[in-house]
Amino acid sequence: MSRSRASTNWLQHPVRGTAGYDQSDQGIGLLLFVALFFAVLYEDALLTVLLGVALATVAVAGYYKRFAGRGLDLTVKVQPRRIFPEQTARLEVSLRNSARLPLPWLNVLVHLPRRMEVSDLKVQRSPIEAVLTLPFSLGGRQALARRAAVHLSHRGLYKLGPVDALVSDPFGIQETLREGNETSTLLVYPRIRPLSAQLRRSLPIGDRRGHSFLDEETHYLGPRAYQPTDPLRRIDWRQSARRGDLYVKTFETVATAATALFLDPTTARDPWDGIDTEVLEETVEITASLASDLIGRGDAVGLYVSGVFSAVAGRRAFSYRERPRTGQKQLSRMLEALAQVRPPGIFRDLPRIIVEEVPRLPYHVHVVVITPYLTHELQRALMRSARNHSTYFLATGQADPARDATLPPTVRPLRVFPR
After folding, report:
1. Do 100 and 55 reside in the same domain of the chain?
2. Alpha-carbon span 307 to 87, nearest angstrom
3. Is 62 helix (H, G, I), strand (E, B) or coil?
4. Nearest CA to 217 among 233, 204, 229?
5. Can you give the pTM of this predicted structure?
6. What pLDDT is recorded for position 311?
7. How many CB atoms lie within 10 A of CB 213?
8. What is the pLDDT of residue 231?
9. Residue 218: alpha-carbon gap to chain centroid
């Protein structure tokens, strides 16, 4: 196989290659064969036996170097695939030898995240990754599996694998590296704290600016025929064009408190200040804890985050936008996004996200902005949000009056306290 991995060099395994004899093997075999020929010719029984054993050993070692491990399948799995930092997962490494050639000496190398801890097993660590070495002895047409408990104390999406195998001949002369491509993923949610927020929960009933509180746009039911009293903004243009008549979108009529959480993970006031990991983790954990508390009350919660770089961001690159909904599935989606939050760099996208998304929210939705610092751009975005929504602000960093903007009087400071 042509794939090479530089991180295996520090393991100091005598890896030689994966196919055929090299020139040194051919030279040794030829030299032993010539010596054996002359030993037989001169009828030296002891030398003939010794050279025959040596030649057979080299032949078996060469055969294993060329063919051993060709029918070897290596897989790695982890269950469950989503955990909290306080929980452990079960790692399973499976091997299957589909060939008839037995593999008496086999070391399996499992490439793991550098921070991962494996219970009761020693892991070799490099600055890039950790490698778990598992010894096996596998017969022909045999399958085996090893399991171990793993633990990660830091949130994130981690890749487990691939799994490589160092196959040795029965005499331990040579080792051959067989590389696998199977991987698995483990998602570690942010840590949830027992926090609660002082949000105003009294909700008005009636109409305001043409928006009805009881007509909450969080549970879509389907289209129905247009009636003269329906607002034009509810027209479903796709269904209308398909059916040849006007249809509107209908939603479930509920009276649920709703909150939209806006998170900015930028931890520095200026780009040259770098990244403060403690402030970042504090901000993410407070956001996750607040979302969990509100969902637990039965509220509808939405999440808008900049700095999400994985597929969970969806069509909008580098941001995650989820409208307020209720239920544990909604909480799982938000925690998955928060687990993968990273600082977005020198650009602060949260003010732009607030300006784009807040006007699309129903008027009764509370807007909660969580960020380490209050900038002047964010100050203007908060003022626009407070025109039609109850807007709260929570700063997770240390205040600096000389550099931070002032909180607008129409925006309430959010206070959280332990439950």
Report:
1. no
2. 26
3. helix
4. 233
5. 0.76
6. 62
7. 18
8. 80
9. 27
